Task: inverse folding
């Protein structure tokens, strides 16, 4: 990475989002969250608290779960970002998304994209997580309406299906 | 008010030298930002003093944990995820590994760095008491060169530290701890996850034989969230040296702790609560240090409800211990022998001991373990059996292990059922296979092959499969809370 904005002002930044190369012209300190939502119109990523506590804005950066409200755009340069929009294969939802639907793991939907990406990250590394492992993986994602039972159940079901 | 990104300069030169020259050219004007878990929060709230930021995220010079003979050197840019997962850190520096697991959720552990935690200098940071207790040292670097300073004394006041504006932390050096230390850490917060501490303790201790029983050889006690900076209780440490751990000493420890700290009332707790709890935790450390059973100095306390499985199991009575571990294997003789072999220090020792005992048992005991499993492909027939709490655990594990088989199609299940029956006719017991991760087809082919075994070699195979199942279950059990 060797990008800089010599005189303040916007800089040209390229990275890949959901497998597609994109180029944006943004301030280097713009939050990745805002770049995704406003520049790229990927509004699946939600803003909850805006200070890294709630996990609503979680995305994967080179496969690693991060809160996009805490990522300055410049630090995403040249990386691969996966948002909630990148999980489904066209109209076909992936296993985690399906399980959330089937188990009633969503209500208002604000926390759901972050929950699903955090679950995805867990299942990428652990094929059959215990309930405690699921709870720990989702500890950084807050849900204020449905409670956590159905969400945990959805991850367990996704794990069963994926195996 | 929220910050306007147009007001900020932000550069990412990509190597340490360029970052250092920038810091040297305009000292105090540039703020280094690594994973952003603290800086971006202040930025979003419009509370960043400066307008120039330089990225040190992913700088190769700040990465990685180097393991040397006398110490480990943790690159200041190491994330909590890296620290938690590091084998040597987990084994030798459990106080640090545990603190890393307590810091934020997974997404923030993926970005938050140890160096960042030190310079952010929150009195409530959980990793800082651990670094104090381990006598860590910092390597600071600037264009003027490197210097090495003890971490004790690095923080001189709230958010003040012994660091020039052109300096960066390059690495945190932690002397390797000999295994005869007892290590204790405990955090008290409002919730298990993501809660900032009300009080956090990290401590090490060693006892030696005195004229009238054991006395304290050395202790190191550090506290977080009870003063403007993380505190080492050096006076207490000196005061208890050479003393026996009795009621009087516990009183002294409490008094001394409460006198040394300066807790405050804030949104998370009150000064009074913090004071009492800090005294209690330090007393608990000494009480546990006294206990003869602490397994080679690695008993760890967690946040409430997060108590280490092995630590708890090591100290309950033998019958309870045997009962608890029984579902991992199914043989009562094995479970009783495991309970007798306590205390066990770590996963590796649990697994080794299990193998040793498993080998020493009789065929009758092995059969008892084999009988404790449902037939392959029938693990979902729960209603068929009366289940007590222990069997529920075993049944849950069987279900997880046989998950792939449970999802097999009907004809595969029928073929498996036929194979099972044939096996039972031939060998007079159920077919045991470590099913975890194996497809129904793989299991069928293993079953067909083993049907051709003679009695002796088949017993050997079943025995080995049960050994593997026991390992899997012991691991699951150790990870449960």
Result:
């Amino acid at each position: 990475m060797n990008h800089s904005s010599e005189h303040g002002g916007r800089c040209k930044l390229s990275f890949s989002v959901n497998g597609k190369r994109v180029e944006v012209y943004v301030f280097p300190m713009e939050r990745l969250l805002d770049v995704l939502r406003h520049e790229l119109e990927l509004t699946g990523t939600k803003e909850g608290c805006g200070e890294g506590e709630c996990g609503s804005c979680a995305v994967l950066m080179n496969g690693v779960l991060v809160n996009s409200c805490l990522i300055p755009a410049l630090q995403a340069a040249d990386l691969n970002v996966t948002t909630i929009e990148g999980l489904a294969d066209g109209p076909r939802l992936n296993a985690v998304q399906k399980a959330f639907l089937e188990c009633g793991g969503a209500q208002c939907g604000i926390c759901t994209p972050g929950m699903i990406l955090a679950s995805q990250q867990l299942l990428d590394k652990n094929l059959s997580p215990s309930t405690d492992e699921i709870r720990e993986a989702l500890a950084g994602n807050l849900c204020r309406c449905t409670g956590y039972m159905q969400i945990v159940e959805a991850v367990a079901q996704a794990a069963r299906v994926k195996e | 008010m929220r910050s306007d990104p147009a007001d900020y300069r932000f550069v990412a030169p990509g190597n340490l030298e360029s970052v250092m020259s920038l810091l040297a050219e305009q000292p105090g004007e540039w703020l280094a930002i690594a994973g952003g878990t603290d800086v971006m929060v202040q930025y979003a709230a419009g509370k960043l003093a400066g307008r120039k930021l330089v990225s040190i995220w992913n700088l190769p010079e700040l990465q990685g944990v180097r393991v040397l003979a006398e110490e480990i050197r943790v690159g200041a840019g190491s994330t909590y995820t890296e620290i938690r997962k590091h084998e040597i850190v987990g084994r030798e520096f459990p106080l640090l590994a545990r603190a890393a697991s307590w810091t934020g959720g997974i997404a923030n552990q993926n970005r938050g760095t140890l160096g960042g935690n030190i310079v952010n200098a929150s009195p409530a940071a959980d990793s800082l008491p651990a670094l104090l207790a381990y006598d860590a040292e910092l390597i600071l670097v600037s264009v003027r060169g490197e210097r090495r300073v003890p971490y004790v004394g690095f923080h001189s006041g709230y958010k003040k530290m012994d660091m020039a504006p052109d300096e960066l932390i390059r690495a945190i050096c932690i002397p390797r701890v000999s295994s005869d230390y007892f290590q204790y850490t405990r955090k008290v917060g409002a919730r298990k996850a993501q809660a900032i501490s009300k009080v956090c303790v990290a401590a090490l201790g060693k006892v030696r034989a005195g004229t009238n029983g054991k006395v304290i050889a050395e202790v190191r006690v550090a506290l977080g969230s009870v003063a403007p900076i993380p505190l080492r209780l050096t006076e207490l440490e000196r005061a208890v040296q050479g003393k026996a751990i009795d009621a009087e000493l516990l009183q002294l420890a409490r008094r001394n702790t409460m006198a040394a700290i300066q807790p405050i009332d804030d949104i998370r707790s009150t000064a009074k609560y913090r004071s009492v709890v800090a005294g209690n935790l330090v007393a608990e450390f000494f009480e546990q240090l006294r206990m003869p059973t602490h397994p080679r100095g690695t008993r760890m306390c967690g946040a409430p409800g997060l108590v280490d499985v092995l630590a708890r199991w090591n100290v309950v009575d033998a019958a309870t211990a045997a009962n608890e571990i029984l579902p991992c294997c199914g043989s009562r003789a094995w479970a009783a022998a495991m309970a007798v072999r306590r205390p066990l220090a770590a996963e590796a020792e649990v697994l080794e001991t299990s193998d040793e005992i498993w080998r020493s048992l009789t065929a009758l005991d092995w059969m008892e373990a084999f009988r404790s499993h449902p037939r392959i492909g029938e693990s979902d027939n729960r209603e068929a059996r009366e289940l007590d709490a222990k069997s529920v655990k075993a049944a849950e594990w069987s279900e997880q292990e046989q998950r792939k088989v449970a999802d097999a199609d009907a004809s595969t299940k029928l073929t498996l059922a036929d194979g099972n029956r044939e096996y039972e006719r031939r060998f007079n017991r159920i077919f045991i296979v470590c099913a975890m991760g194996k497809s129904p087809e793989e299991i069928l082919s293993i079953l067909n092959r083993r049907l051709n075994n003679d009695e002796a070699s088949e017993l050997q195979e079943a025995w080995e499969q049960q050994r593997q199942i026991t390992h899997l279950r012991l691991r699951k059990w150790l990870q449960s809370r």
